[in-house]
Amino acid sequence: MSRRGVTALACLAALVALACDGAGSASPRPSGSPPPGTPAVLTALGDSITTGFGSCLVLMSCERNSWSTGTGLRVESHYRRLRERNPALRGENRAAPGARAAALAGQ
Question: CB 3.0-4.6 Å disulfide test: which of 4, 19, 20, 61 passes with 51?
Fold first, then answer.
């Protein structure tokens, strides 16, 4: 498999893993530490969709509305959902409008 294919497959696997919530308990953990396997850092790669382009009523990136790392009150992003499990989670959005799959490794 080509390097481009491996990168695309790894990104797809990461997105699927983030979308799955698992069958764990809904009650909070008493120790204050995040559940095992909870990420400490979330980094988003992608194009204008990942940057929230055009979602703030202007044609430019609006990362607070990103489905991946957004912190806006009306966005239920991956970042916000994962922060419920680990308040110390750090998020970073390295997406770029107009980016192509070939640019993922460089992001």
Answer: 61
18-57 pLDDT, tens digit per residue, is 554 444 445 555 556 778 888 999 999 999 999 999 999 9
Residue 46 contacts residue 99 (beta carbons within 8 Å): yes
Alpha helices in 1-107 (DSSP H): 3-19, 48-51, 78-85
Evaluate the CA torsion angle 33, 82, 84, 70 in order and state its sign: positive
Domain residue ranges of the chain, discontinuous segments joined by +: 3-19+40-106
- For CA atoms 75, 67, 98, 95, the dihedral sign is positive
| Rounded Cα gap, residues 98 and 54, in angstroms | 13
